[in-house]
Design a protein that fits this description.
The complex is a heterodimer of chains A (about 290) and B (about 400).
Chain A lengths: L1 H14 L3 E5 L14 H5 L4 E3 L4 H13 L3 E6 L9 H7 L3 H4 L9 E7 L14 H5 L5 E3 L4 H13 L4 E6 L2 H4 L17 E4 L4 E5 L3 H16 L3 E5 L2 E3 L3 H4 L27 H4 L3 H12 L2
Parallel strand pairs in A: 1-2, 1-3, 3-4, 4-6, 5-6, 8-9
Antiparallel strand pairs in A: 5-10, 7-9
Helix pairs in contact in A: 1-7, 3-4, 9-12
Chain B lengths: L1 H14 L4 H22 L50 H26 L13 H10 L6 E2 L5 H6 L4 H9 L22 E2 L8 H5 L5 E6 L2 E2 L2 E2 L12 H4 L3 E6 L3 H18 L3 E6 L18 H5 L7 H12 L4 H24 L37
Parallel strand pairs in B: 1-2, 3-7, 6-7
Antiparallel strand pairs in B: 4-5
Helix pairs in contact in B: 1-2, 3-4, 3-11, 3-12, 4-9, 6-12
Classes of the chains: A alpha/beta (about 290), B mainly alpha (about 400).
């Protein structure tokens, strides 16, 4: 997946002379190799390191976008996005609205590595999308693999609203797809139905989509239950139509189950017990169908 | 080789008598180290990111061990140019234009402040005592230079031709406000005037401005609401931070329009030519209350404020200069002051009568296109706002 992201960034820089990439350590290729070779190809004034200051990175990106540049900022880990929270929530999200659409920072995309990685502990595992989901004005996207990552990232970069693109870091090397080398985009705000089913609907995003697919297989095998699996893809604005829960109140045959991480910080040694793995998802499916 | 013998002593204590068998080895190691240390003292330190010298004296750098940054000024309190080589030699029409701008701002402040007291607008912030910093710097840069401001830089917009109606429309949030009535009063913005819309969170504009690589201008007016400077920092103001970040830095008398003008003009030239940032700290005094929600007499004495309303006031000083030049008379002063008040009152009358924007403006511009969760796009009565929460 990191190669698909690298390829998307390469296309964005090649196509748009105003596009710039910046963040901590992006110059030599990034700590996850996502910006490899880009500084050599496009020069130091288009791909460059910033000081270690997340609020500065986000603010700089907003300024660049407001002045007309396509700004692609990297926050090294989603866990370290909080110093930029003020810039993203109070500034980026509200730039267009508060100025009556005279100024905007729609050309800003913030990429950040996201999610559990097996041993990341408290500060290399977090999934902070819910904090941002309460922020009108932002778009939040999480891909589930290489093919999606490239198309969605290019959409985010071209979109006229500020986007936060969370990259599941466990998939950087883990997720392998056949990815077209040419440019393509995938729609934001559109969920994917990955598996058709009629008994239970399972919704997730990022890495968890793969867990849900496994849980669905398990449910089919063990319980003879056919599950529909949906990748939400975009957290905000999310695809209500595909998921459709508000209007289907009268169709609900059991309470909605939420299988999530626990209400604790993300632990190091206990990660296997903390994650909502396929067995916990399977149990929830069982509970639902037996209700 | 004081250091080496210290190491030897420590090593000796650590080894003790019982470990003397190891001493030979330590000694041999130190002997070879001594050779390389001798070589290193002839050299400069090689730590990455520094070009410093060694010192063998233990000495803390104390803020009192070097001088403070001086305050640059051009005009004295009598409106005279102190050093003729620093005279910006602005012609009469430009100086009068600057004076007009500062005083019009002052009249607008007085009337809108009263307006807020009467509950006609919800909020206001005056610029008393700080008229020169904004107008002086605006006059020194190009009209297409992008300005990111806090909220006491209205003079920049006024200098660039933003009209009284435009200011007052914003304060009333009426249907002609470019911002569509969404922001609190004084949060002006203008694409046409290259003035990025003001927002309330403090200093957020600072990293946004980095891209522009212009001069950063700090207004140091002695207070942050009620907090005096000595509770905000212990160093030599804001200017002392500049060199630490590798920035060209200057401190100016913010009540001296020509000092502000000269410093900003030079800073602009330097920044554009060298592609390097400049920091200007303009020292002023916040004569007015912090805002209409603040009574500054609860934390400072009237006598303190009064020191700043006399000859040191930026408007008084420029007026004195103009009078010295024979460019301005008391009669002109009287007529102009009345004119500004009339203009603001007339604008106020017009703007106050205007309707508020269509209520549906509340839902636009959150995103470039209105997302489905804000509206029922299939409703014929579009845009009917969703009644239920998503």
């Amino acid at each position: 997946m990191f190669q698909a992201i690298n390829n998307a960034l390469d296309i964005a820089l090649g196509k748009d002379p105003s596009a710039i990439i910046f963040g901590e350590d992006v110059g030599f290729g990034g700590v996850f190799r996502c910006t490899l070779g880009l500084q050599d190809k496009y020069g130091k004034d288009r791909v460059f390191n910033t000081p270690l200051c997340e609020q500065g990175i986000a603010g700089f990106g907003i300024g660049a976008a407001a002045a007309g540049s396509t700004a692609i900022a990297e926050i090294q880990f989603a866990d370290y996005i909080f110093p930029a929270f003020d810039q993203l929530v109070n500034e980026a999200a509200k730039y267009r609205y508060r100025s009556g659409n005279t100024f905007n920072c729609g050309n800003l995309t913030v990429r950040s590595t996201w999610g559990a990685v097996g041993h990341g502990g408290l500060y290399h595992s977090q999934c902070p999308e819910a904090y941002f989901a309460h922020t009108p004005g932002l778009k939040i996207v999480v891909p589930r693999g290489a093919l999606k990552a490239k198309g969605l990232l290019l959409s985010c970069i071209q979109d006229r609203d500020p986007c936060i693109f969370f990259e599941p870091k466990i998939l950087y090397r883990g997720a392998v797809d056949d990815v077209p080398l040419k440019e393509y985009t995938l729609p934001l705000g559109k969920a994917d139905i990955l598996l058709e089913g009629d008994a239970v609907t399972l919704v997730g995003w990022g890495t968890q989509v793969h867990v849900l697919l496994e849980a669905a297989q398990l449910a089919q095998k063990e319980l003879g239950v056919s599950c529909e699996v949906i990748d939400l893809v975009t957290i905000l604005p999310w695809d209500r139509e595909t998921v459709c829960n508000e209007e289907c109140f009268l169709h609900l045959e059991s309470p909605i189950q939420r299988v999530t991480g626990f209400d604790t910080p993300f632990p190091h040694i206990f990660e296997p017990f903390y994650l909502p793995d396929k067995w916990r998802c399977f149990d929830a499916i069982k509970k639902s169908v037996n209700y | 080789m004081a250091k080496t013998s210290l190491v030897r002593d420590v090593a000796a204590v650590a080894c003790g008598e019982t470990l003397s068998c190891l001493w030979d080895g330590v000694d041999r190691h130190l002997s070879s180290a001594r050779t390389s240390i001798t070589l290193a003292t002839d050299d400069k330190p090689m730590f990455p990111g520094f070009s410093a010298q060694w010192t063998d004296k233990l000495h803390f750098i104390d803020p009192t061990s070097y001088g403070t940054i001086p305050v640059y000024r051009v005009l004295d309190y009598g409106g005279n140019i102190i050093n003729s080589s620093e005279d910006p030699k602005l012609d009469q029409s430009k100086v009068v234009e600057i004076y007009h701008c500062m005083t019009l701002l002052n009249s607008m402040d007085r009337i809108l402040y009263e307006c807020q007291r009467q509950g006609r607008i919800s909020f206001y912030m005056t610029h008393y005592g700080e008229e020169a910093t904004a107008v002086g710097s605006a006059a020194a840069i190009n009209p297409d230079d992008l300005v990111f401001a806090q909220y006491r830089e209205t003079g920049v917009l006024m200098w660039r031709g933003y009209t009284l109606d435009q200011f007052i429309n914003q304060c009333f949030g009426n249907c002609e406000d470019e911002g569509k009535g969404r922001m609190m009063p004084i949060h002006y913005g203008s694409k046409a005037n290259n003035f990025v819309t003001i927002s309330s969170p403090l200093t957020v504009q600072l990293p946004q401005v980095s891209l522009v690589r212009g001069g950063d201008i700090g207004r140091n007016n002695g207070y942050a609401i009620s907090t005096p400077s000595h509770e905000q920092y212990r160093g030599d103001g804001i200017a002392a931070h500049g060199p630490a970040y590798g920035m060209a830095t200057i401190r100016v008398d913010g009540n001296d329009i020509f000092a502000v003008y000269n410093a900003t003009k030079a800073a602009r030239e330097f920044a554009v030519k060298e592609n390097r940032p400049v920091l200007i700290e303009a020292l002023t005094y916040r004569i007015g209350h912090h805002s209409t929600s603040d009574d500054s007499s609860t934390y400072r004495q009237d006598s303190e404020v009064n020191q700043w309303t006399g000859a040191s006031h930026p408007i008084a000083r420029l007026k004195q200069y103009m009078e010295n030049q024979g460019w301005w008379t008391e009669a002109q002063e009287k007529e102009w002051k009345q004119d500004t008040v009339n203009r603001v009152r007339k604008s106020l009358e017009r703007c106050e009568k205007r309707l508020k924007p269509d209520w549906r403006e509340m839902f636009y511009d959150v995103y470039e296109k209105m997302p489905d969760h804000l509206i029922d796009s299939d409703d014929s009565d579009w845009p009917r706002v969703r009644r239920s929460c998503p």
